[in-house]
Amino acid sequence: MSVYPLNKTLWFPPVEDAMEDGLLAMGGDMSVNRLLLAYKNGIFPWYEGEIPLWWSPDPRFVLYPDELKVSKSMESVLKKRSFRFTTNTAFAEVIRSCKEGERKGQDGTWITDELETSFLELHKLGIAQSAETWFEGKLVGGLYGIRMGKLFFGESMFSKQSNASKFAFINYVRALQKEGVCLIDCQVYTEHLESLGARMITREMFTDALKKYT
After folding, report:
1. Which terminus of the chain is more exposed, N or C, with fewer CB under 10 A?
2. Helix axis angle, 72-80 relative to 164-178, nearest 10°?
3. CA–CA dist 46, 118 (Å, integer)
4. How many other CB atoms are there within 10 angstroms of residue 62's CB atom?
5. Rounded CA separation 169/131 (Å)
């Protein structure tokens, strides 16, 4: 099994053809139409270098909103109301902060200028959304992703202050649940999101969810 090369033609191979690590294709572009096609098929971009890489891992890391776990310490943070929570009020600032933030074990960022531009366009279309945490009038944490039907594809989050990203995430998950969102895609495993209730499901289960919820 080999990685599929992409060109300007708008297409993706079947996700079942992905390699063991989830890598499916390489190349193509970060146009709005290609990104939409990717997410609708359970595929997401993740750069390593200058060439776009497209992934569909099996298993898939997801969060069912009703399985959200909130620690006692975080419940205390939520009740104190030191932070303020908003949605879609600072999308450009959120994605830029995610782009510029330092990440353990990573050199640089996978959020390229091209990808940032396309997500700004998707936000104008109401498809890309953000959640923000504010402290004393300053943006200190947040996340962004793609909303399609009853499914939210989480892309990235950042935190400039302790618990700021968790504050945004917990509040946003609760808000999405009230809006009828049934599944949140977390893409790949992180200990941080596992502590909040995310877990692995098979690619087949995720594909079924795409058909059902988007």
Report:
1. N
2. 90
3. 14
4. 22
5. 7
**Tens of each residue's pLDDT in the chain, 214 residues:** 689 999 999 999 999 999 999 999 999 999 999 999 999 999 999 987 788 999 999 999 999 999 999 999 999 999 998 999 999 999 999 999 999 986 544 444 679 999 999 999 999 999 999 999 999 999 999 999 999 999 999 999 999 999 999 999 999 999 999 999 999 999 999 999 999 999 999 999 999 999 999 9
The span from the CA of 194 to the CA of 5, in Å, is 33
The 3-state DSSP class for residue 198 equals: coil
Closest by alpha carbon to 18, among 47, 52, 53? 53
Please choose, from the candidates 161, 99, 163, 158, the residue with its C-alpha nearest in 3D space to the C-alpha of residue 131: 158
